[in-house]
Design brief:
The structure is a homotrimer. By secondary structure, chain A is an alpha/beta fold. Chain A is built from eleven helices and twelve strands. Chain A has helices at about 1-20, 75-90, 120-135, 155-160, 190-200, 200-210, 215-220, 235-245, 250-270, 270-280, 285-300, and strands at about 45, 50-55, 60-65, 70, 95-100, 105, 110, 140-145, 150, 165-170, 175, 225-230. A seven-stranded mixed beta sheet of chain A has the order 1-2-3-5-8-10-12, sandwiched between helices. Chain A has a three-stranded parallel beta sheet with strand order 6-9-11, sandwiched between helices. In chain A, strands 4-7 form a two-stranded parallel sheet. Chains in contact: A-B, A-C, B-C. Chains A and C meet through helix 5 and helix 9 of A and helix 1 and helix 6 of C.
């Protein structure tokens, strides 16, 4: 099948940002070693490590779903719960999101959740993707993405829901919504987030071409706000956070809501239709066949 | 009448991009010599020359309505038919649009179709303009504009409906929506296309001022995606086409439609009202008088 | 109260653009000396000086509400009346707006109108702010802002309703919507004006952070169209005006209306709700307390 073989071929390009990296693979998530870790100073769940700095009102939230932080149903759920906790804890005013896995911020949606499962599972999974987007995009907290690795597809969307983005200056750390390369289509709310960030024309081309931007180009097009040496990503995020926290919370939150509400409302008005749309698309034989061949290929490479 | 004389004066500036060029004139379209030409390797109509490369899945479509490819009713009709043919022929995935006339991509709408005719004729003409815009803006094909000449008004709109634009680096090849210089107003869907390409603020100023951008400025404002030496326009378009055709068609088409549907729907919802609006505007005595004096001037210069 | 003290602290930063300037203060408006001035060649009201050039069809309108042109109810009213007069006088096709007060274009809304008054007064004041914005944003005249001083908050909005903006190249002349620094929120139509000028992403960050842009950054982000030496602001505005007046009025006005109508309609559809919203926000104890402490501080500094 022509589409399938083209997808297989493109999948290699799609994966380049992280498959070229030593020892990394792509597939089902594995349980993280450790979990919460060193007692009082850290909390969080198995796949989300939270390092609070209560005095500063800031928490650093690290994704730990090796090897590539793919957004499994478990990771999505734990992210939502961790954010909810911080949102409800008056101690915290800002969160820095970063990766605990080397060289990858997040590889995006977990294809194993979208392949060979039941329609009910696809619906549950997509609802969780929506839930994370809604919670992050409308968060009252200041969210800053400290992007210390490759950041395609769903990883990019997580970064774009933040208020500010800092990308490590490593030519392998690409960022962008590259869904078309896999033969699939970003949902309209990914598209809306893209347009809100880089404008209509750049989105139209980048979404169609599935462009993955290296750091300098990402900065130029406006996908990220700063590019800094890799070892300064976190410290730069902390400096940026201080600037954001200098603003009275209430006025900032009302302003953020004013900017984002219309976009979020578009999804809220049609969540169920969007889920149905995703399920019927992903259930197509041609799409399932493509994804299966693609995953098979990855497993062989891994094995 | 003050407006009329101002329009006459400005008309010269409006025409500058191509009237300054040796031997060119502006007016009624003339039948192209030849028509289809060299048998099996080319097809098309009298005013639209199509050079197919079936192996690559790409066709080059050349406008041949000398002297300045003004968009007469005949040319509009033939363009729509040629595009429809290519769209329905599974052999083709992409089309490169360019001019067969020296130094002009297209001078835009044909003023002789908008002057001294019946309201019914104006309505028929405007419907054809809408039809071409809709067909191009929503085309499933990859459309790339190889802009090898001046590109004002309707010529600019044809370019803007494409997915990618390459402009020859010639200081005389200006591009832009310069309707106000003639005392007329771009329709809202021209405006929407402009805003989608260069944003609200740049559109607001450029549309009011009727700005015609030379190549470097066109690139900077985002009206075109590349500026290359004149003899490399077509080869650059072919290279760009290869990048676009590397993307699975189905995913790319769904993505393009997602980006453009809302804008196209705005026109589709009010096509008839838009036609009535055009007809009543163009039928005004003041507008007709201005256009007549303007055309008379052109005929004298020609004769 | 934490918010109040933070607001007090930030207020100093907010005021920096003009409090750092020699001898200037911020507070209640004082009646301008002179009023209309030198007879036949100037007209206007007490706080708005109009210098007409009937031959050119251009008037220069100077704000004269010392020390900082804060937008008191009187100034708002006089601005609306002056604009209405020029709009109805066929002699005039363009207006240049500038400041008669040294080093400040306008400090924005007058906080004394928003503090310690009755709900009815707040409603009347807010209606006047809406009225000025509507009249300027939809003006048929060409409006050019010759920004010869600091231009925060409401001052920035006046500039943004113009068709073209020239800012004096003085590092102390900042421009931007910095409402959040005071713990208050820009209304949605200020936000819409911002987004139309600098796009969604830049607006989202600048509005949340209350960013005041120095000239070079204001030019880069697109808040102003030109930055020129301070003594060339007015002459540059006159040159720009000549370019705008070269366009037939009728076509330019229809085009401007096409670009701006949707944004203006959003406010027109909900003027009363917007007033209620403002009144209930500004009447909150916490907001009143913050504003009172802030004004008290300013009076002490002044005294």
């Amino acid at each position: 099948m022509a589409l399938a073989s083209r997808v297989r071929f493109l999948a290699r390009a799609l994966l380049r940002p992280w498959t070229l990296l030593r020892g990394t693979t792509f597939g089902r998530t594995e349980p993280a070693a450790g979990g919460g870790g060193d007692g009082a100073r850290r909390f969080g769940s198995q796949r989300v490590l939270v390092e609070p700095d209560a005095a500063a009102g800031v928490a650093v939230m690290k994704f730990r779903n090796p090897p590539v932080n793919s957004l499994s149903l478990e990771l999505l759920t734990e992210l939502v719960i961790s954010l909810e906790k911080l949102e409800n804890d008056k101690t915290f005013r800002g969160v820095i999101l970063t990766s605990d896995c080397p060289r990858v911020f997040s590889a995006g949606l977990d294809l194993t959740e979208m392949c060979g499962r039941s329609p009910a599972h696809y619906a549950e999974y997509w609802k969780a993707v929506q839930e994370l987007w809604l919670r992050m995009y409308l968060s009252n907290l200041v969210l800053i993405a400290a992007i210390n690795g490759a950041c395609p597809a769903g990883g990019c969307i997580i970064a774009l829901t933040c208020d500010y983005r800092i990308l490590a200056d490593n030519p392998k750390y690409h960022i962008g919504l590259n869904e078309t390369l896999l033969g699939i289509v970003a949902p309209f709310w990914f598209k809306d987030t893209y347009v809100n960030t880089i404008g209509h024309h750049a989105s139209e081309q980048a979404l169609q071409l599935g462009t993955l931007f290296p750091p300098a180009e990402a900065l130029q097009v406006g996908l990220v706000d700063q590019v800094v040496p890799e070892d300064q990503v976190l410290s730069t995020a902390l400096s940026a956070m201080a600037r954001w926290l200098a603003i009275p919370d209430h006025a900032r939150q009302l302003t953020k809501n004013m900017m984002r509400k219309a976009t979020a409302d578009r999804l809220l008005r049609q969540r169920d239709a969007d889920i149905q749309n995703f399920v019927s698309f992903i259930c197509r034989d041609s799409i399932q066949k493509s994804l299966q061949m693609y995953l098979e290929k990855l497993r062989q490479r891994k094995g």
